[in-house]
Structures
1.
Amino acid sequence: MNNCRHLIRLYSRPLLLPSIWKRAKGYKVVKRPDPKTLKMPSLADAPSLMDIIKEKIRLNGPLTVAEYMHIVITNPTEGYYMKKDVISEAGDFITSPEISQMFGEILALWFYSETSKMGTGKPLQIVELGPGNGTLMIDFLRVLNRLNYKPNDLSLHLVEISSTMQLVQANRLCAKHNECDIESPYNREGQTVSGIKIYWYNDLKKVPLNFSWYIAHEFFDVLPIHKFEHTENGWRELLIDMDENQKLYYRISGEETPSAKLLIRPPLQADRTELEISPRALGIARQLAERVDVHGGLVLIADYGHEGEKGDTFRAFHKHKVVHPLENPGQSDLTADVDFSQLRIAASKTPGVDNYAIVMGPVKQKEFLERMQAKVRLEMLLKNMQSDEQKEKLKAAFSMLVDPQKMGERFKFMAFYPSAMTEILDKHPPVGFADLSK
C-alpha cells in the first residue's frame, strides 16, 4: 500500500527535464518577398521552350497535347503570344477584323439589334476575349458613337494573358494608359480619346458581373486540347514524347489516361474514332452562359470549327503556311478547329435552377454576314471610294470573308442568350441566325 502511495506522488510531480533536453525553436523566420519588387527573369537567362519541354518529359514522361500547347502558348518569357505581335500580313496569320472594317461594324450592329429586344442596354460592358490587335474594338466604338453611346454609357474589358499584346492594344485604343498594382483585379487600365475607360484582365473570372456584350473572335481555337483515338482497347490519349535523337513525336498511351476517364462521356463519343476536347473551352463556355443568364447580356463566338464531324484538326501556322505543330515550338501559332457541338452541350440551358443560356447556331460566316446585310454595307462603302484600286481591294476583302472556299464556310458563329428570352426570340427570331427572308 505504501508503495502505491509513493508511486502516485511520484507521477503527480511536474516533470523536470535536463537542460540538454530543452527543445529549441524548430523554425526560422523568413521575410516574405514584396510582390511589387519581383521581376521576370531576363530573356537572356530564360531556358528555351525546347529545353523546358525536354526536361518535363525527362521528369514526368510524355506530355498530353494540352500540356504541350499550354507551355508553347503561355510560357512567360518564350511563349508564342508573349514575345511579339503575331497578327498581321507580316506575322503568322491574319484575322477577319484586319481584312475589312465591315466585319467589326456588322458585329457591333448585331449586338445593338439584339440588345434592343431586352431594353436600352445602358450602362454597358463590352468584354472581348483575346482582343488581337484591338482592331475589332476600334470598329465597335466607331459604330457605337454613331448610335449615340456616350463615354459614361459603356466601358471596355479586355481579357488578354499576354503583356506584349496588352501593350499593342493599349497603344491603339488609348489616349493614355498605365500598368496597375499587382493587387488590382486588372493588369492595365486606360482611357480613349473620348473618355471611355478600358481595363485589361488575365482571366475572365476577374471581369465584373454586369450586363455585358461578350465577343470571342478566334479565341477558342487556341485553347489547349486533349486528343484521343478509339482503339480496340477503348479510348486512348495521343501523347507527345521524345525519341533518341531528341526529336518530338506522337505516341498512343498504353492505358486509359485520367483525361480520357474524365472527359470522354456521352454524347461526345457517339460514332466517332477521334476526339479533341478542351476542358478550358468547355469551362469558359459554361461561364459565359451563366454570366448572361444571371446578369444579362449576349455572347457571340466567331471561330473556324465544326459540329462534331471532324476528329484531327490540330496544326500550326507560320508565315501564313501550315507547318508541323511539333517542330520549332514557340515559333508557330498552334490551333485546333472549335467543336461547336461541345460548346453547345456546355452552355445550353437545362431543366432546374441553373438554366444557363439559349444557344443559337452555329451558322456559317457567309450566312451570318449576308443575313446582316453585309452586301448593302459593301455597296455603301464602294460608293464613297474614289479610286478603282480601293474598290478592288474592298471587293477582294469581302470575297475573303464570304467565299465558301475561303472563310465563308470554315468560320462559324454561335450566340448565347439569357434563358428568360425564350418567348421574345420566338416572336422576334435572332438576326443573323434565322433566315428572315422566308
Note: Residues 15-21 have pLDDT under 50 and may be disordered.
2.
Amino acid sequence: MLIREACCAAFYCQRCGQIHVHEIPYFSDARKTVLRCDTCGHEQAVLERLNGGRISVELDCVVCGENNRFVFSLKRLHSVQLEKIYCRKDHFELGYIGCRKKIEELLSFNQAEFEALHPSDGKNFIEKQRVLLGVLNRVDEMASTGCISCSCGHSDISAELHGHYIVLSCANCGSCYTLRAEKASDLAHIGRYIELLVPGMAGDR
C-alpha cells in the first residue's frame, strides 16, 4: 500500500524536553499510532483516525497535568504550512504541526533568536525546555510519593510555572518555595525532600 505523507509534527517530550519531528502519513492501515520520543522513548502523542476523514491528536501537558485532544481533517493537514499547538488550559507550548521544512525553519529561528536575546545565557534553546520539563517531572514524582510538604503540617501543595521558576505553594498557610528551572544544575540540585517553611518559624531555605 502506498503511504503518502500528509504533514509532519514536532512535539516537546514531556519527560526529557527534547523535540523531534515525526511524519504523519496521509493514508495508513493503523487506526492508532503512538509517537514516541527518539531520545528516551516516552510517549509524546497518540494519533487516532476517525470517521469522516479526520484524525485526533492527544497530548499530555506536564505543566497542568491534563490531556489535550485536537481534531484535524486530513484535508486540512495535507495543506497546512505551520501551526503551533498549545495546552488548552495553561497555554504552554506543546509543539508544532505542518510541513517539515516550515517546522525545521521555525526551530532554527527559535534557537537563533534565543541566542541573539541571551548571548551569555546559554547556547541551547531546547536545553532550556528540557530542564524545565525535567524539573516539573521531578516535582510531580516527589509530590506523588509524599516528598513535598509544609512545616505547617499540611501536604496540599500546588505548583505554578513563572518563567524559569516553579513556585510551590501551600494551600493551607500560603507558604512558598521557589525552584529555579533554567540550567542543568538546577535539576541536579533538587534534593529528595522539599519542605515549605512557614515565615518566621525557621527562615528560608
Note: The CA atoms of residues 55 and 72 lie 5 Å apart.
3.
Amino acid sequence: MSRKSLPLSKVYGLLEPGPVVLVTTFHRGRSNIMTMSWHTMMEFEPPLVGCVISNRNYSFGLLKASRECVINIPTVEIAEKVVGCGNTSGENIDKFKLFNLTPKSAAHVGAPIIIECYANLECRVIDTKMVTKYCFFVVEVIKAWIDPAVKNPHTIHHLGDGNFMVAGEKIKLKSKMK
C-alpha cells in the first residue's frame, strides 16, 4: 500500500472532534453566538467538555467574564447560518437578528439557547488552567435539552478550508462499552 505525505495543516480534517456547534454567551447585557468545532468530551458523568475558543474572538472575553455558555448543536438544515455566524464578529452586531436565529432563556445560565438547534447544553466553566496558554476552557454540562421531534439529526463536521461532512447514518456493532 502506497502512502503520500500530507501537509500538517490538513491533519485537523482527519481528526475533527465532532459536530460544529454554536456557542452562546452572555455578559453585561450582551449575548453572542460563536461557531466552534474545536471541542472534545472529557468525562461522562458529570459531562465535561473541553473547548478551544481563541482569545481573538469576541466570545472569549464574554465566556471568561461570565464563566457560562450554552453549546447548541445544529443540523445541516441551518448550515449556512452556522457558517455565517463563524465568519462574522458579534462585537458590533446582533447575530441572532442578522441570521434570524431565535434565543430562548436557559434554565440555569445567562446565555440563551438557540431554538433552531436540535440540542442545547447549558454549561459552566470549571477549569481555566489552560486558558492563558491554549485558550482551552473546561466546561461542565449542567442541563441538557433535546428536541424529541428530531429523530435522526444530520450534524455538520468541519474538515477545513470551507469543507464539511454531514453525519447522520447510524450503524450498530457489538461492543462492551455502553
Note: The chain has five helices and eleven strands.
